[in-house]
Amino acid sequence: MILSPDELEAIRRQAIEEYPHESCGVIVARGAERRLVRCRNAQNELHAKDSVRHPRDARTAYYIDPADLLRIGRLEAEGFAVAVIYHSHVDAGAYFSETDKRQALLGGEPAYPAATYVVTSVLGGRPEAVAAFRWSSERSDFVPVDLEAAGGATEAPPRDSKRLWDRAAAVMPGGVNSPVRAFRGVGGEPFFVARGAGARLWDVDGREYIDFLGSWGPLILGHAPAPVVAAIAEAAARGTSYGAPTPLEVEMAEALTAAYPSMELVRLVSSGTEAAMSAIRVARGATGRALLVKFDGCYHGHADSLLVKAGSGGATFSIPDSAGVPAPLAGLTLTAPFNDLEAVRALFRARGSEIAAVIVEPVAGNMGVVPPQPGFLEGLRATTREHGAVLIFDEVITGFRVAYGGAQERYGVSPDLTCLGKIIGGGLPVGAYGGSRALMGQVAPLGPVYQAGTLSGNPLAVAAGLATLRRLDRSSYATLEARSAELERGLRLGASRGGVPLTVNRVGSMLTAFFCDAPVTDYASAKRSDTKRYARYFHAMRERGVCLAPSQFEAAFVSLAHTEQDIATTARAAAESLASL
Predict the structure, then answer these.
(1) Which terminal residue of the chain, N or C, has fewer Cβ atoms less than 10 Å from its own Cβ?
(2) Closest CA to 431 of 401, 455, 403, 406
(3) Is 523 contained in some domain?
(4) Which of 63, 117, 299, 411 is catalytic?
(5) Which among 394, 416, 522, 530 is annotated as catalytic?
(6) Domain containing 272 — which CATH number?
(7) pLDDT-based confidence at 64, cuts 50/70/90?
């Protein structure tokens, strides 16, 4: 065993006693005899005397008191060898950081090649995890080791995530069921999740993360909130699907139309993609027109007519952005830069009588978070109304996220049709689209626009969604705003101190840190971000126990489960990560 139970308890107890400062010490061994040498961390004292030589920043973790080093040296002279070197991480994960590695190496080689390095994670004064690492000459790096390994430290067996990844790659395209999960945007291999609770995730390898992915937005209450879990279990006990109307779907429709006055009638579907596709069909059916206007960088699901990108200018026809999309179908979609109202007006001047609808994320979330500039949404409303076109707000992400009534409540602009998803399913697959009685009266069985779905209004998804919505009120959004603003401040401060160009865009509890030094207002400016630097930041944050989206062009989501301590811990991890880039 690397540590006896008594040694492990002593190390944990010291970490608690010395919190919020790092603890440190060693265990020396001579044959069967072992001694734990508790050391004093002199870093704060040295910093007070000479802040230049001994900075208190992300590059310095702890500094063992010279008197303790002398004690250790005397024990070595008596035949003891250093078996374990331990220290704690304050409000951070149990990982072996780049700072730890620098302190352990001399000229690129470990000062104590036979020693095991033990790291204790202490969050809010409470020990959360203990991990061990040892130098691998084969890899020229420190690798995780099994604390329970008999007969001394051995390299940990292949990670469960690695084994699962190999199995997944053999039976699923790219090993995943949605492309961004494959880590192509950041490099490396994805971890596999074992469970989630509150603001945290645990992977199958036993690592814990503060989670800001939030299943890409639905989990506004955090992972596995008790009321939602109970609602799902209760609904499942009655049956998982019926193919017939149920009371809860009526209650959900009433909740949605009450929260979104522009939605007089609503149809539940099974995904955001289905909601957007159906809303566009309604717009075309109601207007008798074929053309659609969307914005470069805005994602509305993978329906054929939406998988297009901008051509040589805002007024040109688009080309397919995916194989399998016929060019004539892609040609029915026109694109314009987000926040460029004049480009939209130019499209309408040229083709206004042919345009059925404009679809927009009122706050872009799929190029990273990009808020609408003042007057942009109002201008879209006026232009579409002037030309008899339908304005569609895709609020799959922003619905119940940036306000209870979504972006249309936050910005005071009412669309003709609205698409919802994510939060209204409480983490289960769901979507919805709705609008005025006149428009939605076009939908079968009332009208000629056909749309149907076997699992539409699924009782489990509706139960989870209603349980979620019942926990949201005005105070919920005040809390989300405060926590998210604090995270934004922490990111900006960390970037400033680390000298890293960073632009943070935030609307409510969704935000993106773009690695660039200029404002991000559309897809073109977002694409100027340093994606390689983001990839390094992503892995540095993951190493420090923070889970972010594996792409620069996505949002981070704050939930009501995130505490002030979680935000502070994340800000410190960000400062360390940014300083290490």
Answers:
(1) N
(2) 455
(3) yes
(4) 299
(5) 394
(6) 3.40.640.10
(7) confident
